[in-house]
């Protein structure tokens, strides 16, 4: 262990200041012991360059392993998210097609019923002469048909609005899922970036 001062020069300096040779040597010996004790305390908390390099290599290999795991996780997570997204898109397209088919069917049924009713009324009018009382009954019957048609139109509008609401909720769920996926990927990427730095 090296001492960073000249002990003999310190003994000589103490002798010049009035200490005896024996006193000077005792003082210098005590200083050397104090310094050695302090250095022992300091060396306990220190590591050698070799130990530091070994620890650094271990940390770097651990980081490389984590990096590989994160890349594998990221790829599998993205592929799972893509598959789920495609599945949701297909379901939405099927629902949209079903809604369109249902609306077309309801419209066609209503038109058919209305045309049948009109033809039946025309046939009745041509078979029987229309009397004033019959005209009144005919008008009432026509008003009832208009009310029934209006109610049917309202039901159709209500069903269409319900289906649109359902589609919007599915879209919103899809957007929420995608946003969560993006934030998850960003978190993974930031964690990876943080580990890398």
UniProtKB/TrEMBL annotation:
Its main location: mitochondrion. It is found in: Mitochondrion membrane. GO terms for cellular component: mitochondrial inner membrane. Keywords: Coiled coil, Membrane, Mitochondrion, Transmembrane, Transmembrane helix. The gene is Mcur1. This is MCUR1 regulator. Gene3D superfamilies: 1.20.5.340. The chain crosses the membrane at residues 177-196. Belongs to the CCDC90 family. GO terms for biological process: calcium import into the mitochondrion; positive regulation of mitochondrial calcium ion concentration. It comes from Loxia curvirostra.
């Amino acid at each position: 262990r090296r001492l960073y001062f000249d002990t003999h020069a310190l003994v000589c300096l103490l002798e010049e200041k009035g200490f005896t040779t024996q006193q000077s040597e005792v003082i210098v010996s005590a200083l050397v012991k104090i310094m050695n004790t302090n250095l022992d305390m300091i060396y306990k908390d220190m590591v050698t360059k070799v130990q530091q390099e070994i620890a650094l290599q271990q940390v770097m290999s651990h980081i490389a392993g984590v990096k590989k795991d994160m890349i594998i996780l990221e790829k599998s997570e993205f592929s799972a998210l893509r598959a789920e997204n495609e599945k949701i898109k297909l379901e939405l397209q099927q629902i949209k097609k079903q809604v369109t088919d249902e609306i077309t069917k309801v419209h066609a049924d209503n038109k058919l019923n209305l045309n049948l009713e009109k033809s039946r009324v025309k046939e009745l009018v041509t078979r029987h002469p229309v009397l004033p009382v019959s005209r009144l009954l005919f008008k009432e019957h026509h008003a009832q048909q208009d009310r029934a048609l209006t109610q049917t139109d309202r039901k159709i509008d209500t069903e269409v609005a319900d289906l649109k609401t359902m589609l919007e909720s599915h879209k919103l769920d899809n957007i929420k899922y995608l946003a969560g996926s993006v934030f998850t990927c960003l978190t993974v990427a930031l964690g990876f970036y943080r580990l890398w730095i």
